[in-house]
Description:
Blueprint: H1 2-9, H2 12-16, H3 31-34, E1 41-45, E2 48-51, H4 52-70, H5 73-78, H6 81-107, H7 114-122, E3 128-129, E4 132-133, H8 135-145, H9 149-170, H10 177-187, E5 190-198, H11 211-220, E6 226-227, E7 230-239, H12 240-245, H13 251-260, H14 262-265, E8 266-267, E9 270-279, H15 284-299, H16 304-311, H17 315-319, E10 323-327, H18 334-340, E11 353-355, E12 358-368, E13 371-372, H19 375-408, H20 414-420, E14 425-426, E15 430-431, H21 442-448, H22 451-456, E16 463-464, E17 469-479, E18 482-483, H23 486-518, E19 529-534, H24 543-551, E20 561-566, E21 572-581, H25 587-616, E22 619-621
Antiparallel strand pairs: 1-2, 1-22, 3-4, 5-19, 5-21, 6-18, 7-14, 7-15, 7-17, 8-13, 9-10, 9-12, 11-12, 16-17, 20-21
Helix pairs in contact: 1-25, 4-6, 6-9, 7-9, 10-25, 11-23, 13-19
Amino acid sequence: xxxxxxxxxxxxxxxxxxxxxxxxxxxxxxxxxxxxxxxxxxxxxxxxxxxxxxxxxxxxxxxxxxxxxxxxxxxxxxxxxxxxxxxxxxxxxxxxxxxxxxxxxxxxxxxxxxxxxxxxxxxxxxxxxxxxxxxxxxxxxxxxxxxxxxxxxxxxxxxxxxxxxxxxxxxxxxxxxxxxxxxxxxxxxxxxxxxxxxxxxxxxxxxxxxxxxxxxxxxxxxxxxxxxxxxxxxxxxxxxxxxxxxxxxxxxxxxxxxxxxxxxxxxxxxxxxxxxxxxxxxxxxxxxxxxxxxxxxxxxxxxxxxxxxxxxxxxxxxxxxxxxxxxxxxxxxxxxxxxxxxxxxxxxxxxxxxxxxxxxxxxxxxxxxxxxxxxxxxxxxxxxxxxxxxxxxxxxxxxxxxxxxxxxxxxxxxxxxxxxxxxxxxxxxxxxxxxxxxxxxxxxxxxxxxxxxxxxxxxxxxxxxxxxxxxxxxxxxxxxxxxxxxxxxxxxxxxxxxxxxxxxxxxxxxxxxxxxxxxxxxxxxxxxxxxxxxxxxxxxxxxxxxxxxxxxxxxxxxxxxxxxxxxxxxxxxxxxxxxxxxxxxxxxxxxxxxxxxxxxxxxxxxxxxxxxxxxxxxxxxxxxxxxxxx
Length: 630
């Protein structure tokens, strides 16, 4: 229990459910707001789909998080298909849980107000500059991620509703003061007693080992003497890094690339707009009439910014006089853009424009002319792009050449060496768990230990280890899994039998001493070490002794509790518990421990809710080979 409390208090989940739960996946759920085109789904939860777009973006977010957390070690893990599969399974499982929580919140009739949505958006750190909400940062961030303000607000509204549902459940957990005090006394408990050790080595001389005992121990422990399956492998490696060393980019290629990709190095004119939005709501005609009335006020000289602040349903841009910042084509609703980019003069105002969000009045507030970046400024970037393209192309061609040659002459790598200059290498014997670095990828291990390669002795297909490395392997020799014969390991077996029997004799001696201690007789055969008010965390005595001391029941008055423990070196310890001193209640720690206990209860409650929702749900997982590629 104590371990669970400590672990629960540090749980990411416990902390996460007290904020916007679904923001973990905030970048994953926007697909539905951008396109109405049907797309594949990875799961169906009570009839509602989790789309491939949601899943892919959630996977990328989790990969980015783990890469930041694990650093260079992540690259090694990411090469393992099993790691990738586990990651993707965890993500789809989390998305299913998120969908279940959304559905449960909706079924409860929970809602989030516009003011709550606004406050939540303002609290997102990505939209702040110097600790304050910045509308320009807000608009820029949304555009870079493919959001519309209304779509993002809908996503936040959904997350807030889910948060309400979860908080309504977990916030009902409480901890009684008596629980906190009892836990603190238990954690701070001190125990006194004594212990004595019986060294197993002292009983070795009393042991006689028979051939039957040796054979029996050997038969019972055959797995200790297993010799794993082993292979010797010849292989050729196709390495993009080696290809890159031979790639050179000419000035003519740079010039041609620059001229053929002018759109990359030219900046289209930019336009800044403000707007007044009247949402359609349940009465589109009334909304349109309101927008037309506002348009009439503008014709009569009303100030656009003041009207936007007073009347626009886009609360964020309205606070900025309707400002939408700089906008490029393709970032807004099509009807909105058609009317907006038709405005030519700064200060001109559109008629009332209908879009999927309602009725807009749009004003062109500023524009910037286009520009072209000189070749000199982007030369290094172009060289890098061309180099990367050429390396990829040559690497692909080299892969094809190696594949062809190793297929045409399947029992040697000589043609690859002669025609392509790639040297073949050969390993020493290795097992599945001890492959040399170049062949340690799980996909390669699976191939070299397959029956086909072992039995046929032919070249494998080209195996892609990573984006930059491929290999063709051939098993040149094979040893089946076996067991070391008893004759080869007899000395080791005899030693183990002697140690086990010596330990058994030590346990028998300990049992006799335990009886003497229980009967409060004088024990002189061993020397006891006093244990005076030791804590759970003490390192002054063997760990096994301390653990057993705290496992034992408190003795009755005038009595002792006794038991044995086996230390890490195989010795037997006699442990005597004489007294238990309760820990003190430290008022300074009470609040912290109460929070830890509450968090632990909240985590258990949250997990219970998820398990209950999943038990009652109809869940269809569609994560398979067709959509399992990232």
